[in-house]
Amino acid sequence: MIAESKPPAPSALKRVILIAAAVVAAAAVALFAVSCVRASAARGDNLIYFAAARALVAGGDLYAGSHLGAGYVYPPFFALFLYPLARLPGVTAAAVWFALNACSLVLFFALALYLLERPAEPFFRWLRAKAAALAAAKFNWVVVVTVVVTARFWIDNLRFGLVNVHLWTLALAAVYLVGRGRKVAGGALLALAVGVKVVAGWLLLYLLIKREFRALAVAAAGVGVLYLLPAAFVGWGRNAALLAGWYDAVIRGAFKEYYFYADDFNQSLSSFVYTYATLGRGAAFGAINALRKLRYLQRVVALVAVAPAVVALIIGSGRRRGAAEPLGDRPALAALILAGTMAQPLSWVSYYVAGAFGYMAALYALRERSSAALRVVVGVLIAASFAAHSLSGGDLWGAKARVFYYHYKFPVWAALFLYAALVVVILGRRRRPGARSDN
């Protein structure tokens, strides 16, 4: 008599399902990676970086035709660092750059969660435990939701070979190292981030508020060293000329090229203010236009944007150790990063990948707090933020709708909703005796 076959045990069935899911996920990731590499090899910003690297070594002008928001807009040392990649064939270089970007993205999300959880163990030991949990199909819903909500931004960064993910990974790694007492290493990483993009300079203010003077000094000195570094390869005179060209084309241009305020693709807060102030053409328009002509608009907007985050950091830093709740100063730090992104003279949509830390901080607060009212308010603001920026992405809504969403600054609305959620989290913080310090 043939023995009747038994159904597989639940554990075996679960393993089969997990293996099948892993195969499907790996195939999807591979297809996505190929798509991103092809896109960045054809028209990614990485092509601009590599061309600048070759021009630096060949004696060419890195900033010919460059201006605020177009062409090569980074200091000479960044091109020098990318010269080894620039020597590779186009698709190969794009593939390597994509792999580096993808690794940075994973580290960015991991560092954000680590800074919010603030465990006692070092980062990589903590990361191994998280990887083991993930392998066992134990998902952290805060991370999963953040990845989904911010896909609009990080996909753009991967597809077009941008540098923003690297920037904020370095910044969060610097915060981690400084908090672990490694001031010099943290300052050095922050110097690299600030040297590439000045928007990371808001983290210098964070170090100042936290009274991390050693790390602050290392970061400031490190930026100077990085700016002078190419002189060892191209000579002092040429490096000085390149730095002057960068200042004229990019830094000074930030307060000179006013048309960017009204440019539909400029998703900065100053562009947002100017766009809506010009709708009525009334008294408000006159006041804003006067500020614009006097070159004060950008400075006023930046001050207004960062003030709440700075005040929250100062107040939080004044609390005695052990009195803060588990999130510590992380929501205020996330708000400072988001405000700094909005406050730039020019912000493309892809820059708002920096907001991933803010989304994660707000979502983490939902899990940690018992107040139903706070959960409802923060949840509604996060949903509104996601809705606002997702409307401007892809081809789902059609070309005309996308132009409308860009013109009326829906990504800025998304950032403002998220900023409001972070402010609510900060204002709703409760003292919890025995909690860990902010570092």
Task: Please give the structural blueprint.
Blueprint: H1 10-43, H2 45-58, H3 76-81, H4 83-86, H5 90-117, H6 123-135, H7 141-149, H8 151-159, H9 164-179, H10 183-196, H11 202-209, H12 213-228, H13 231-234, H14 236-251, H15 259-262, H16 269-280, H17 283-293, H18 297-317, H19 330-342, H20 356-368, H21 372-390, H22 399-407, H23 410-427
Quick recap:
With 439 residues, this protein is mainly α. Helix content is 71%, strand content 0%.
Overview of the structural elements:
There is one protein chain. The chain has about 450 residues and is mainly alpha-helical. It has a domain at about 260-439. The chain has 23 helices and no strands. The protein has helices at about 10-45, 45-60, 75-80, 85, 90-115, 125-135, 140-150, 150-160, 165-180, 185-195, 200-210, 215-230, 230-235, 235-250, 260, 270-280, 285-295, 295-315, 330-340, 355-370, 370-390, 400-405, 410-425.
